[in-house]
Design goal:
Number of domains: 1
Number of strands: 10
Shape: globular
CATH class: Alpha Beta
Structural class: alpha/beta
Strand order of the largest sheet: 5-6-7-8-9-10
CATH topology: TIM Barrel
Largest sheet: 6 strands, parallel
Order of helices and strands: EEEHEHEHEHEHHEHEHEHHHH
Number of helices: 12
CATH superfamily: Aldolase class I
Radius of gyration: 18 Å
C-alpha cells in the first residue's frame, strides 16, 4: 500500500502529476493507495487541498482501495476530514495519534472514539511515536478494537515484536500494517499483514512483487527484492520524508522536485545517495 506523496508545482498542489502517479501505481500492481498522510505533506495542505487530493486519488484509482489520511491533533478537524473522505467515496480512513498536544491514553481513546462515531469508514490507527511523541498502549488498542469499525494499525514504531503481542492479544483479524519499509520482511514473519510504504512511491512494481512472492511462500524471491530495495528503504529516510522520495520521483520524470516549507529539498550528498540506491534497485 503506497503512502502517496503530493506533487507540487510553483507552490501549488499539482493534481495532474498526482493522478498520473496514481495511475502508474495501479498499473504497477500496488494493492491500495494512501493519500494525504505524513508522506503526502498533510500538515501543510489546506482543507480544500486535502479534500481535492483525496477526491483526485479516488477518481484515478478505479477499483483499487483508497485509505484516506484523516489525521489531526484537533479531534474536530479529524472528524471533518473523515466525513469528507467518506463523502468522496474513500474505502477507509488512516488516523494518526494526535501530535504536539501529547494526550494521555484516555485522551487517545476518546479522540478515536469520536471519529469512529462521526463516520462509517473503517479506521486504521496510525501509531508513530517518533513524530507524534505519544505511543498508544496495548490496553488502549484493546478498548478501541471493541468498536466495530476500528480495524487495525499502521505501526511505525520499528518494534517488530509488537506484531506478535498484538496478534496474541487482539487476534489474527486485527489488521497489522508496517509503517517501516526497512523492517517489512521481519514484520511479515511475525504475523503482520502488509505495509503502508514510502518506497513503493518510487518502486511500486518491485514492492508489489516482493509482497506477492511472500504471499505464495517464496521467501527467497521476496528477500532478493528486499535486498535490492534496502538502499532505497534507508535512503528515502536519510533526510525528512518526503523530500528524498520527491527527488527520486523527479529522477523518474513523475513530478517536480518540490516540497513545501518547512521541508526543503535534499542536499547534494543525499541526491548522490538516492541515485546510488535507485541504480542498485535497477530503477535508473
Amino acid at each position: 500500500m503506497t503512502a502517496l506523496v503530493t506533487p507540487m508545482r510553483g507552490g501549488a498542489v499539482d493534481l495532474r502529476s498526482f493522478q498520473a502517479l496514481v495511475e502508474w501505481q495501479v498499473t504497477e500492481g500496488t494493492h491500495a493507495l494512501v493519500p494525504v498522510g505524513t508522506t503526502g505533506e498533510s500538515p501543510t495542505l489546506t482543507h480544500t487541498e486535502h479534500d481535492a487530493v483525496v477526491a483526485a486519488c479516488i477518481e484515478a484509482a478505479g477499483s483499487i482501495p483508497v485509505i484516506a489520511g484523516c489525521g489531526s491533533n484537533s479531534t474536530a478537524e479529524a472528524v471533518r476530514l473523515a466525513k469528507s473522505a467518506q463523502a468522496a467515496g474513500a474505502d477507509a480512513a488512516l488516523v494518526v495519534t494526535p501530535y504536539y498536544n501529547k494526550p494521555n491514553q484516555e485522551g487517545l481513546f476518546q479522540h478515536f472514539k469520536a471519529i469512529h462515531e462521526a463516520c462509517e469508514l473503517p479506521i486504521i490507527i496510525y501509531n508513530i511515536p517518533g513524530r507524534s511523541v505519544v505511543d498508544m498502549g496495548l490496553e488502549t488498542f484493546q478498548r478501541l478494537y471493541e468498536l466495530p469499525r476500528i480495524v487495525g494499525v499502521k505501526d511505525a514504531t520499528g518494534d517488530v515484536t509488537r506484531v506478535q503481542v498484538y496478534r496474541q492479544t487482539l487476534g489474527d483479524d486485527f489488521i497489522q500494517l508496517s509503517g517501516e519499509d526497512a523492517t517489512i520482511l521481519p514484520y511479515l514473519a511475525q504475523g503482520g499483514h502488509g505495509c503502508i510504504s514510502v518506497t513503493s512511491n518510487v518502486a511500486p512494481g518491485k514492492s508489489s512483487q516482493m509482497h506477492s512472492f511472500w504471499g505464495v511462500g517464496d521467501i527467497d524471491a521476496a528477500s532478493k527484492i528486499c535486498d535490492e530495495l534496502m538502499g532505497l528503504h534507508n535512503g528515502l529516510f536519510s533526510e525528512p520524508s518526503p523530500s528524498p522520495a520527491k527527488y527520486a520521483l523527479s529522477k523518474l520524470g513523475m513530478m517536480e522536485n518540490e516540497v513545501r516549507l518547512p521541508l526543503v529539498p535534499i542536499s547534494r550528498d543525499t541526491e548522490l545517495l538516492i541515485d546510488s540506491a535507485m541504480k542498485q534497485a535497477g530503477l535508473i
